[in-house]
Amino acid sequence: MLSRALWQLVKRCLIPAAAVVAEAKAHSEPEHPRLCRPSELPIYIPEPICNVKHKVVEAPGILESTIRDTRETLTKYSDEVKAYQRVTQEHISKSKENIQWLVDYLHEEDNTLPRAGAVGIGALAGLIFGLRGGIIKRTLYATAGATGVAAICYPSEASEYSKVGITEAKKYLTVAYNFVYGVKKDDPPLELPSLPKLPSSLTEVWTSVKSTFVSDAPETKAPQEQVPKSK
């Protein structure tokens, strides 16, 4: 009975006193600052909002479409023409180099048999070109072919003989010219009218042909050195 009375005393007096002390202690302690979340810190900024503007593409008109198609077509054909021109120039340059090599080979003194073969081929080519004509035409064509190739194989002899032939031909032309104009024997002879300068030999003819091929070839310009500007 005594213990029960003590328990009732503690329950009625001590427990309310402890509650009052705890409440007073809670009021006496300073208040802690309110905690925040990591996302609420100032280093975290909101993500920028991307504003996408949709561009309105207008359909091209009839005039614009026509001009565009014409330009594309012209560009295409221009590129094709340039490609064909480049291939043609390459073939011309290669053919010129091969012909020059063949001529230099025939000019060598030790190549007697190749020279004779070349003269025979020239005569045969002239004969083939004159097959449709009579015996005179065939003979003239074959002689012209053989003479032309022989002039290439023997340039010095061809130059000498051609000069003699040109001199004799000029003399006979002067006689015929004076005869046509009725110049008598005792009168001073008339001079032939001035004519354009013609090659005096087959070598000059070949030189002019080579120069023509060289002039037709495209020229490659060397890059110019850049000079620094003076300050």
TrEMBL record:
Location(s), subcellular: Mitochondrion inner membrane; Mitochondrion membrane
Pfam families named in the record: ApoO
Main localisation: mitochondrion
Entry's Gene Ontology cellular component terms: MICOS complex
GO biological process: cristae formation
Family, as annotated: Belongs to the apolipoprotein O/MICOS complex subunit Mic27 family.
Its biological purpose: Component of the MICOS complex, a large protein complex of the mitochondrial inner membrane that plays crucial roles in the maintenance of crista junctions, inner membrane architecture, and formation of contact sites to the outer membrane.
Designated name of the protein: MICOS complex subunit
Organism of derivation: Acanthoscelides obtectus
